[in-house]
Structure formats: C-alpha cells, structure tokens
Amino acid sequence: MTYVNVSAKGGVATLVLCRGKVNALDAPTIDELKDRFRELEADEAVRAVVFSGEGKFFSFGFDIPGFLGHSRPDFSRFLTKFTDLYTYLFTYPKPVIAALNGHTVAGGLMLALACDRRIMTAEKGKVALNELAFGSSVFAGSVEMLRFAVGNRNAEEILYAGAMYLPEEALRLGLVDEVCSGEELLRKAVATARDLGGKSPPAFQSMKRLLRGPVAEGMRRREGASITEFVDIWYSEATWRNLQEIRIH
Fold it and tell me: pLDDT per position in the chain (249 positions), as tens?
C-alpha cells in the first residue's frame, strides 16, 4: 500500500502524505517518504519540492497505538529511521516547502522543521511539540532544528509548555513562516518552491550546506544517545501508562 502521492509540474514536485485520517507515521511510511524524496533528488527536472498532507492533518506524529506492541530494539530501529529521515530532509539539496494543511504534531512537526519554509493554513489545525504533556521527550536533532528555526528562548518555551499553538501563535514563535487561507495554501507553497528552485542550484546547495551543515553535524553526534534516552523514558511506567490512553481517530 502506498502512503505518499507525488505529482510534478513546472519543475516543482508535490509530495502528499496520505495515511488514514491523521497521517500517523510508522516504519513503512518513513521508508516510503525516504524513497520518494530520494527519487525527487535524483530527478533533474525537479527543482524544488512541496511537502503536504491529505485531509485535516499534516501529520499526527508517531502511530502510538501501533507501536505499543513493539519491543525496545524494534522501536529503537524505527526511531533511527525516523531521525535519519529528518536529518536527510534538513540537508536536502533542493528547496523543500512544507504546506501545513492542518494539525502538525510531535513527529509531524519535526518533519516540517526540517524543511526550508513552512506555510500553514489559517482555518484549521494547530502545531505542537507536545511530548512533555504525556511524559515523553524529544530527540537531539529535533531540538537543534527547533533552535535553528525559532531561537533558543522560543525553543525553550515551546518544549517546556508542550502546548498546541494556533497558526498565528505558531507564526509569532517562528514555527511557521507564513499563514494563509486553505484555498491559497498550495498555490503559495508552489510559488515559494518555484522562487527558491529558480535560484542557481549549486549556489543554493552551497548556502544551505553552510547554514545547516554545522547544525546537522551536531545532530548526528548526539542523536544515538538521545534515542537511547527517549526509549528509556518511553518505556518507563508513568509514560507507558499515558501512552495507553492515546487514541487515533
């Protein structure tokens, strides 16, 4: 089964996540996202990518009910795949614009933070790194991407609050770069992608490496230890009890 739809026009590819009502992330979905992004990277006709979701969610984040039966080693392997994906996107050689069509939560927001720009619909949806609200943590790489996007002080506010932010609040904090109507979302995202994709590819790639390369190096150095810590917290008694209560509708 495919969970990612891809189309292309005028040098811009649009990649849409479509896994059920909330676009929850599991291992096959992560694998498919990585494969599709690699194909678009290799396609010389594609100059930029718009990354969006189907329905009311960009992504809920991890498919938590689906992971409750996983062993620690299996879950650790998934987390390695997931963090490898967002690090790959963070350093992707082509512009990637996140068109946030709705709720963008936890792992979903981590994927969005890896993109070059984030544009969100004003009518529906909230964004959050709400892990602390149910007793979980985040990853070293996700913290570095958050700092890169919003600065240290706002990153601290977002992580410690674990709050769900409306689009205008997300704009104030720097979690998104622009808010627009749902009708305009894809048009604006494609226009932004076309603008960045119209720059000299070698020059764009060089600047992106200079901006993001040192951040990505730090992400890679610390990621393994942060995954181990994340798993320890995830399987702790109090957090595990909270995870049992999470439902995906």
Answer: 799 999 999 999 999 999 988 999 999 999 999 999 999 999 999 999 999 999 999 999 999 888 888 899 999 999 999 999 999 999 999 999 999 999 999 999 999 999 999 999 998 799 999 999 999 999 999 999 999 999 999 999 999 999 999 999 999 999 999 999 999 999 999 999 999 999 999 999 999 999 999 999 999 999 999 999 999 999 999 988 888 877 775
Number of other residues whose CB lies within 10 A of the CB of residue 33? 23
* 112 burial type by CB count under 10 A (0-12 exposed, 13-18 middle, 19+ buried): buried
Take residue 208 and report the two structure tokens written for it: 């992106």
Give the helix/strand (H/E) hosting 106: none
Residue 198 phi/psi, 5-degree rounding, is: -80, -5
Pairwise CA distance, residues 59 & 17, whole Å = 8
Tokens of 103: 């709720």
Cα of 214 vs its chain's centroid, Å: 20
Residue type, 136: S
Whether 58 and 112 have beta carbons less than 8 Å apart is answered as: yes
Domains and CATH numbers, the chain: 4-183 (3.90.226.10)
DSSP string, 10-60: TTEEEEEE-STTTTEE-HHHHHHHHHHHHHHHH-TT--EEEEEESTTEEE-
Q: For residue 81, which amino acid is it? A: K
- Phi/psi at 207 (5° precision): -65, -40
